[in-house]
Amino acid sequence: MKLNKRQKKELVRIGAGVALYLAAVIAGHTLALPHPVKILLFVPGYFVLALPVLIKAAKNIAHGNMMDENFLMSIASIGAFILGEGSEGTAVMLFNRVGGFFEDYAVTRSRKGVTDLLSLCPEYATIERDGKLEQVSTDEIPVGSTVVVLPGERVPLDGEIVSGETVFDTSPLTGESIPRTARVGDTAVSGYINLKGKIEVRTQKEYEDSTVAKILSLIEDATEKKSKSEHLITRFARIYTPIVVALALALALIPSLLHAAFPALVPQGVGTWVYRAMLFLVVSCPCALVVSVPLGFFGGIGGASRKGVLIKGSNYLELLAKADTFVFDKTGTLTRGTFTVTELVPQGVDGQQLLALAASAERYSAHPIAAAIAASYTGDLREAQVEEVAGKGLRARIDGAQVLVGSAGLLKENGVAFEAPACEKTVVHIARDGVYCGAILISDTLKPDAADTVAALAPYAKTVMLSGDGEAVAHAVARELGIAEVHASLLPQDKAAYLEQLSKGHVCAFCGDGMNDAPSLALADVGIAMGGAGSGAAIEAADVVIMDDKPSKIVLARKYAKKTVRICRENIIFSLAIKCGVMVFGALGLASMWAAVFADVGVLIIAIANSMRASRV
Q1: Residues 534-550: pLDDT tens digits?
Q2: 340-443 placed in CATH 3.30.457.10
Q3: How many whole angstroms separate alpha carbon 368 and alpha carbon 153?
Q4: Among 202-206, 238-242, 565-569, 584-588, which is the least confidently predicted range?
Q5: What is the enclosing helix (H) or strand (E) of 508?
Q6: Are strands 485-487 and 462-466 parallel, antiparallel or unpaired?
Q7: What burial class does residue 224 get, using C-beta atoms within 10 Å of its C-beta: 0-12 exposed, 13-18 middle, 19+ buried?
Q8: 308-336+446-561 carries CATH number 3.40.50.1820
Q9: Helix (H, G, I), strand (E, B) or coil at 470
Q10: Where in the chain is the domain with CATH 3.40.50.1000?
Q11: DSSP of 540-579, one letter per residue?
């Protein structure tokens, strides 16, 4: 990754400081100069390195916020000069600047995984007027407009291709490296890159409702939602810094007073104890903790986003690492959700009449099963007045007759007597004027990686499936996947009720398709939506969004979460252990300022390097 202007400027400052520091060291060792002059030789290099830190410390003190690393470094380095240790005072500031440089570089690199998404949507879209191409701001283009997307350009708004054929690079959204062929009638999602030919897209959403706009909003919110670990470290730093300053003052004053009163008991003089107090301040800087923990979480979020897994905050990443129960919706989550009519079971009517009756009602519904039934009938459809019965089907008026199309429960509620066919497929029942007309059998197929996903989660988490389908269908799918606990024939509110029971005493993740599972997604500790490129509802409803609908990405998200939390815990333990150890040894006179520098800057660099591992699984 290239350095930005700020980083290049800082590198120049560090280089100049190193040169002046080495010149002072060489002059001090080769020239016969009095000690005060040797100390003064380090002043130019010190001010080149320390000036930004001193200015920040002064500003913070003016605003009543003196307890930060700038104040600690300023006091410690100036104190070293006062004690005649110009070399060590300059070295403290030099290594502080080196640590700051690595911190800035690491943060920029870690954020890149997320901020790269900010370039997904172009500010302007191209439209054709009077045979000429014009650029218009994306937020000014109404629904139904036709935009032109040339090769190499990003799709500006969600829509349908109405002209041309191309190949899309979907990796910015889904993390998939394999390009996707698209033709007239296919969906074009904002953020996709047009790799091949000129296409025209009829917009179906305004900018504020587009996939990219929702993703950008998600990214902005993610930085505000901190994990418990981050909140703990922030509170810890606020308490910790004043305490160590007080301890440093005590270390400088109390033994010095004891020395004045009882020189035999405390032989070391004031200079020794002030030096140890300065060492204590250098060690005490909490920057390794304050920086490395948020950096680790941001690295995990950024790394996951590059793989097509959007996580709305480090709090959800932390919860996902703790999840011990994964609850799955069936249709659209573990199965493809693309249904086909496999068999007609008419009773008292012709098979085509049965299909025509169902298709005439179902064409008014957006449900995938309804679409499959409507698409399977090629004849003329009748006009119908349709009323949806949530989670159960349709009630329609066709040619003056009342028609019911849906689940067995719908027919039973309306007093229709029937005998359901015995099968392990989704069954849609049809009745007309209270008389059973037969059933249509619908099949769905498992997603290729669904079984592997369940198997990968099984060693450390309980898996449960909640489905709106009948018992036979749900249990057949569960057996194929290896899920032991299944609850079938559930309405959305029933799923939420089961989820509430499963969450008692457990950290529960619910995985749904993001459309009719909003109550469960909101209720779960972590809501995971099979968002799919273009599903704005899923992006809004869930805490984690799988952009390419692959269940295996849930396992990947869990790996990112576990690794990130483990790395942050390592940083906390390592930083505190080293700092406390050097503090104790320093107070006892068993550690030098160089050990203190390592306990501050060295630990910071090690913790940063460790945190950067979170961006890769």
Answers
A1: 455 666 768 898 888 89
A2: no
A3: 32
A4: 238-242
A5: strand 508-512
A6: parallel
A7: exposed
A8: no
A9: coil
A10: 308-336+446-561
A11: HH-SEEETT--THHHHHHHHHHHHHHHHHHHHHHHHHHHH
The span from the CA of 612 to the CA of 113, in Å, is 11
Strands 435-443 and 340-346: antiparallel
Q: Rounded CA gap, 517 and 478, in Å? A: 19
Residue ranges, comma separated, of all CATH 3.40.1110.10 domains in the chain are 340-443
Crossing angle, helix 450-457 and helix 552-587, to 10 degrees?
30
> What φ, ψ does residue 152 adopt, rounded to 5°?
90, -10
Active site residue 329: yes
Backbone angles phi, psi at 115, to 5 degrees: -70, -20
Collapsed DSSP state (helix, strand, coil) of residue 132? strand
Name every residue whose Cβ is closer than 8 Å to that of residue 15 and which is 6 or more positions away in sequence: none
CB 418 within 8 Å of CB 432: no
242 token code pair: 């004043």
Burial 503-524 (b: 16+ CB within 10 A, else e): beeebbbbbbbbbbbbbbbebb
300 contacts 312 by C-beta, under 8 angstroms: no
Q: How confident is the model at residue 112 (pLDDT cuts 50, 70, 90)?
A: low
Select from 76, 81, 79 the least CA-distant residue to 96. 76
Note if the pTM is more than 0.70. Answer: yes
User: How many Cβ atoms are within 10 Å of 128's Cβ, its own excluded?
Assistant: 12
| Ranges in the chain annotated CATH 2.70.150.10 | 122-206
Angle at CA of residue 371, ends 369 and 377, nearest 5° = 110
Q: Can you say whether the dihedral through the CA atoms of 63, 69, 74, 76 is positive or negative?
A: positive
122-206 folds as 2.70.150
Q: How far apart are CA 212 and CA 121, in angstroms?
A: 6
Catalytic site residue from 158, 169, 329, 600: 329
Q: Residues 45, 35: contact at Cβ < 8 Å? A: no
Nearest to 312 by CA among 557, 503, 76: 557
- Could you give the CA distance from residue 459 to residue 341 in angstroms, rounded to a whole number? 37
Distance CA 166, CA 179 (A): 10
Strand locations in 336-444 (E): 340-346, 385-389, 393-398, 401-406, 426-432, 435-443
Instruction: State phi, psi for 494 to the nearest 5 degrees.
Output: -70, -40
> Which whole number is the average pLDDT over 582-591?
88
